[in-house]
Recover the amino acids of this structure.
């Protein structure tokens, strides 16, 4: 569903460790997990969004923090410590919404997509010395669009998910000179012909394998884009769950072998068989909040899946799920995924957005929000899963 309608509040409260409330959660279909809060950091002055751990194995993690720019934390102590930041005046005063890392560089998706009235852009930040990060270049659209939701990088190219404006491609071989090579907007008339503003597809999540770019669309299903020619992208296949007629959103996607795991907002998670790219099929669907029933109208859903990571050691997927905070899905049998358990409840006024994982520790960003789930605390938590 359109997260353009989330209204962020300025509330701030301090909270203690939260646990499952049996009156607020659903009965698990698999063995439950035990959650242990290791630390939490309140960040009342900015709104943490995307979060990534340092890919080079150093004890740092990076947070895209909307109007707060990019924050860098030292994770060698408990709780982690903020050691440096890159303010938005280093990249045209555009909000930092998501980020990824490749080598010594962070790539930041710019432009507040919640408001739907911002330029889209990308920034490159040198973090070879995390204590002294520097912005090497940034790029922005020439006109106001709808901001951007995600950026991913492969080799010398970056791909920016820019909501209804589709996908921008950049040559980033020169970190001081970002060069746009293409903009591609997939067919907007799928699944709804002539969509209105609520039904219009928005590029929200992306991952890439070879020359196949998988794009998860808010309201537009899954698209597979051929990026062989970086100046001439082409859609090669598409998918959407047609088993029910309520609008639902594919907010993010990750791959594992012949399967794709998709965070599908208030509809939980779908596992897709992608062994035949041209004929993507539904392998199984974990729908813990029963989005296909009349009782669930999105606004009252117990969970809203946004971001996800794959825990290969335990054959499970961990999702950030808004009011349900963190949700675990057993994917050991891709043809029969099962809800395990959740950390947090719909009624505790805590809500997650970003998510990453290392070993058995989940790092989650918490936001303040009004709808579709209430959130009254801004911060970052590190939660151990046993």
């Amino acid at each position: 569903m359109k997260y353009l309608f989330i209204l962020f509040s300025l509330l701030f409260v301090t909270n203690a460790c939260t646990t499952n409330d049996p009156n607020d959660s659903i009965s698990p279909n698999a063995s439950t997990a035990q959650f242990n809060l290791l630390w939490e950091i309140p960040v009342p002055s900015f709104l943490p969004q995307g979060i990534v751990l340092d890919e080079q194995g150093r004890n740092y993690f990076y947070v895209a923090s909307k109007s707060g720019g990019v924050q860098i934390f030292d994770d060698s102590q408990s709780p982690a410590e903020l050691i440096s930041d890159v303010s938005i005046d280093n990249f045209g005063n555009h909000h930092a919404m998501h980020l990824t890392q490749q080598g010594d560089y962070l790539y930041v998706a710019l432009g507040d997509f919640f408001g739907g009235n911002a330029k889209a852009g990308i920034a490159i930040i040198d973090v070879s010395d995390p204590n002294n990060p520097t912005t090497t270049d940034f790029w922005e659209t020439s006109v106001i669009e709808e901001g951007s939701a995600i950026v991913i990088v492969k080799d010398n190219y970056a791909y920016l998910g820019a909501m209804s404006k589709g996908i921008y491609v950049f040559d980033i071989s020169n970190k001081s000179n970002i060069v746009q090579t293409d903009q591609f907007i997939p067919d907007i008339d799928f699944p709804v012909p002539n969509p209105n503003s609520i039904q219009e597809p928005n590029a929200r999540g992306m991952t890439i394998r070879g020359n196949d770019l998988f794009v998860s669309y808010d309201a537009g299903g899954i698209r597979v884009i051929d990026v062989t020619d970086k100046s001439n992208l082409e859609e090669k296949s598409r998918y959407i769950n047609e088993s029910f007629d309520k609008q639902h959103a594919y907010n993010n996607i990750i791959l594992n072998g012949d399967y794709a795991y998709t965070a599908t907002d208030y509809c939980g998670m779908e596992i897709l068989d992608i062994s035949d790219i041209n004929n993507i099929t539904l392998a199984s669907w974990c729908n813990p909040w029963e989005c296909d029933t009349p009782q669930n109208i999105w606004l009252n859903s117990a969970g809203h899946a946004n971001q996800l990571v794959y825990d290969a050691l335990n054959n499970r997927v961990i999702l950030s799920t808004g009011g349900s905070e963190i949700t675990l899905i057993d994917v050991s049998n891709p043809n029969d995924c099962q809800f395990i358990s959740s950390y947090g409840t719909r009624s505790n006024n805590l809500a997650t957005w970003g998510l990453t994982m290392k070993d058995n520790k989940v790092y989650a960003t918490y936001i303040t929000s009004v709808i579709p789930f209430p959130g009254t605390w801004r911060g970052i938590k590190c939660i151990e899963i046993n």
User: Anything to note?
Assistant: Residues 56 and 138 are 23 Å apart (CA to CA). Confidence is low (pLDDT under 50) at residues 3-30. The two ends are 32 Å apart (CA to CA). The longest strand covers residues 375-385.
